[in-house]
């Protein structure tokens, strides 16, 4: 009975840790988006009062799509969770597949580059696998190292994506700008135009 309580307690601590770290990551990604957005609009971000929920809400859709991009990597982890080492070449392919799908779907790159990178990735994987088999090289890495690499890649892709998205949104806003803007300020509870 005490072992069940210990497992439940560890699960609760793990879940709480994931929530805390996940909240910090979502906030930092949202902050990256909004600070870049206002910087491209040439507005000092220190004067803007954004609520935490708005900053975090900016990132939800992207996080869900990012998880779907790397679903192959997560299934790779689950399939090999009982092993201490995994195949490094297959792992590199799994991560590269997620990056390629991310780049292709986020419309940061054009379609010809996307198709070319997919073909090049398969070709490179085939060549590396052939050389490793020919030279009898050991190509294994630890599962923990794979987890760290995966989460670093996802976070790096997220920062890259939010910087580009903020720049694109700011440019869209600037292009739709009209000359007849009226500023309304609230000074001592009196509206000043």
Task: Write a short abstract of this structure.
With 193 residues, this protein is mainly α. It has helices spanning 2-40, 52-57, 60-69, 71-79, 88-105, 111-135, 143-175; strands spanning 85-87, 140-142, 185-187, 190-192. The strands form 2 sheets. It has a two-stranded antiparallel sheet with strand order 1-2. The chain has a two-stranded antiparallel sheet with strand order 3-4.
Number of helices: 7
| Distance, first to last CA | 70 Å
Approximate strand percentage: 5-15%
**Average predicted confidence as pLDDT:** 72
Task: Please state the overall shape, judged from the principal axes of the Cα atoms.
Answer: flat
- Largest sheet: spatial strand order: 1-2
Q: H/E order of the elements? A: HHHHEHHEHEE
Quaternary state, please?
A: single chain
């Amino acid at each position: 009975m005490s072992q069940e309580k210990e497992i439940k307690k560890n699960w609760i601590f793990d879940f709480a840790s994931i929530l805390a770290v996940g909240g910090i990551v979502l906030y930092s990604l949202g902050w990256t988006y909004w600070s870049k957005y206002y910087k491209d609009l040439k507005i000092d971000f220190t004067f803007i009062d954004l609520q935490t929920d708005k900053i975090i809400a900016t990132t939800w859709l992207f996080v869900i799509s990012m998880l779907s991009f790397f679903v192959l990597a997560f299934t790779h982890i689950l399939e090999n969770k009982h092993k201490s080492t995994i195949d490094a070449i297959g792992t590199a392919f799994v991560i590269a597949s997620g990056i390629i799908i991310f780049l292709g779907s986020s419309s940061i790159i054009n379609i010809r580059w996307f198709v070319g990178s997919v073909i090049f990735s398969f070709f490179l994987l085939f060549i590396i696998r052939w050389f490793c088999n020919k030279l009898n090289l050991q190509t294994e890495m630890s599962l923990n190292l794979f987890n760290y690499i995966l989460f670093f890649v996802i976070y790096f892709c997220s920062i890259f994506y939010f910087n580009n998205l903020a720049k694109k949104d700011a440019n869209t806003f600037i292009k739709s700008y009209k000359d007849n803007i009226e500023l309304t300020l609230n000074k001592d509870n009196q509206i000043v135009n």
